[in-house]
């Protein structure tokens, strides 16, 4: 299997981690359909597509090899990455929107056509030196079905994350914990004040996941933060079905017979899966801090 790779700027530094990263970016985002028709990772928060913050956080921690697992409107990702090339930067017209510009989604009960974003100068700097690949699906496969296709791209282990949620965590520590515990998968867990709209995690003292619970009443709980360190063995053994959900089908079955470990994370967590959460992210999302980790000087050309 060969993913289409787009090299942004210079080659990765020799010391950069070689662990492949896969971002699940294929969902339709039905709950946002009245606001925008963009793929969720390209929906803007605080002036940048949400995807930029994921890539900035990865780059700041040394990860350079990223594959976007696309589905719905895959061509929008292709066009966005093409716009991040140095040639596109040279052709950017005067007065192009800057990093502080917010393009709000167009509201409407039907299909709301939103102009696809173009990378600004800061986004291009963040992507420079990263190797971004696109691996699309012709029909919806679910999160586990999409991951099933990446097996030829994984040597020993990989990092996987949702394209519509963000958790400030140490990705390398997640990988180390998986290896130290000897399991096939380790996930980031975050404790939120109101977990009524999320599936909950039952954790023991050591951080082993004992169960995936249904949504419950309002109140604090540990929930899945959507970031995973997993082994090639997990991909080989846990994903037999061509169409399936990692969260709803694969992990609840796996935890019954194999260990699933969680690393408790106490940094910011948020997602943009509903209009309410998207609005909340616009108010609380630590955009400036995340961008500064990968691009500390926003004023430079």
UniProtKB/TrEMBL annotation:
<feature type="region of interest" description="Disordered">
    <location>
        <begin position="88"/>
        <end position="119"/>
    </location>
</feature>
<protein>
    <submittedName>
        <fullName>NTP transferase domain-containing protein</fullName>
    </submittedName>
</protein>
<dbReference type="Pfam" id="PF00483">
    <property type="entry name" value="NTP_transferase"/>
</dbReference>
<dbReference type="InterPro" id="IPR050486">
    <property type="entry name" value="Mannose-1P_guanyltransferase"/>
</dbReference>
<dbReference type="InterPro" id="IPR005835">
    <property type="entry name" value="NTP_transferase_dom"/>
</dbReference>
<feature type="domain" description="Nucleotidyl transferase">
    <location>
        <begin position="23"/>
        <end position="283"/>
    </location>
</feature>
<keyword id="KW-0808">Transferase</keyword>
<feature type="compositionally biased region" description="Pro residues">
    <location>
        <begin position="94"/>
        <end position="108"/>
    </location>
</feature>
<dbReference type="GO" id="GO:0016740">
    <property type="term" value="F:transferase activity"/>
</dbReference>
<dbReference type="InterPro" id="IPR029044">
    <property type="entry name" value="Nucleotide-diphossugar_trans"/>
</dbReference>
């Amino acid at each position: 299997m060969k993913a289409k790779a787009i090299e942004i700027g210079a080659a990765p530094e020799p010391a950069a981690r070689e662990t492949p990263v896969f971002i699940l970016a294929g969902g339709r985002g039905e709950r946002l359909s009245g606001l925008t028709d963009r793929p969720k990772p390209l929906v803007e928060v605080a002036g940048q597509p949400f995807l930029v913050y994921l890539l900035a956080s990865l780059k700041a921690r040394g990860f350079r090899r990223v594959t976007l697992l696309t589905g719905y409107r895959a061509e929008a990702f292709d066009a966005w990455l093409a716009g991040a090339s140095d040639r596109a930067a040279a052709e950017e017209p005067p007065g192009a929107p800057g990093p502080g510009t917010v393009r709000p989604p167009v509201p409407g009960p039907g299909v709301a056509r939103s102009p696809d974003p173009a990378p600004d100068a800061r986004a291009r700097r963040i992507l420079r030196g990263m190797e971004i690949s696109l691996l699309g699906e012709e029909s919806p496969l679910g999160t586990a079905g999409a991951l099933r296709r990446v097996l030829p791209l994984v040597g020993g282990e990989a990092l996987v994350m949702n394209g519509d949620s963000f958790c400030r965590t140490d990705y390398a520590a997640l990988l180390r914990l998986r290896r130290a515990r000897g399991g096939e998968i380790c996930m980031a867990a975050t404790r939120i004040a109101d977990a009524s709209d999320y599936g909950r995690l039952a954790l023991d003292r050591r951080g082993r996941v004992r169960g995936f619970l249904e949504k419950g009443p309002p109140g604090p709980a540990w929930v899945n933060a959507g970031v995973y360190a997993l082994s090639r063995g997990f991909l080989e053994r846990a994903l037999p079905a061509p169409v399936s959900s990692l969260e709803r089908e694969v992990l609840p079955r796996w935890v019954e017979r194999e260990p699933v470990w969680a690393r408790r994370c106490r940094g910011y967590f948020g997602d943009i899966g509903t209009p309410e959460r998207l609005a909340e992210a616009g108010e609380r999302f630590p955009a400036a801090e995340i961008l500064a980790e990968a691009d500390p000087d926003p004023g430079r050309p």
